Predict the structure.
Amino acid sequence: MDKLRSMEVFAGVVGAGSFTAAARQFEMSTVMVGKHIASLEQQLGACLLTRTTRRQALTEIGARYHQQCLQILALVRQADTGAEAMRSGARGTLKVSAPVAFGSECLAPALADYLAQHPEVSVDLDLGPRVVNIVDEGFDAAIRIGALDDSALVARPLRAYGMVICAAPSYLERHGWPRTAADLAQHQCLDFLHWKRLLRWRLDGDDQQCTPPPSRFRSNNGQALKRAALAGLGIVMQAEIVLQEELRSGQLVRLLQEHVPPARPMHLVYPRDRQATPKRTSFIEFVMERFGK
């Protein structure tokens, strides 16, 4: 028999004072009430109640067990109430993973709007180059750039992660505009530290021999490369979505648009869940509205 249900019936018998009163409370027969009590006593190997024709009384073990049952049943009700509350509205901690550049430059500022809309939600935003295991590490969702591996995760397409080549007007005034990909050999190009040597600045339709000399400034952080470009240090190639404000304001100027590498796909991924929590659902809707196609 369901042990938790038997514990409820046992507590009901003690509270109501008789099997008959408990039977009415739980809308079952007195025989079924007796079976629940007998099941508990068999599992415990001890008598919980002594009964006569006129009265019933708890044994010493029964009295102690009754108090523990009340505590357990209270915790169960508390858990049920908490779960119901979480399902009735967006609340709780949302754990999200994203690439560093997109997460810091695009997602983090947008989350200010999301949190304003959902005051009972908090967000733990994990930024890094590694691909987290969403299920094993307890993440609610993640942003992924590039081709996806086959998995059981739900993948929702976002705007493509397109690249842009650009520089500050101050740099172009000093060094001139590159008109062809080959011209980059005469310019200062800012490198991402972990680009593979043979793939650095490989442009669409470009001759692989027409690559810039080793960069005088490299970094493993896109924010650092952007700041260096804004300071006029050189030409940078980064995601357009990360540089959109600087491009719109004219702080950075587009270059060699016909040679920009093909855009990579970007997805929002999350576990498949038949009963998704409102916090995850609200986050998915927000991201799709803000960054969807």
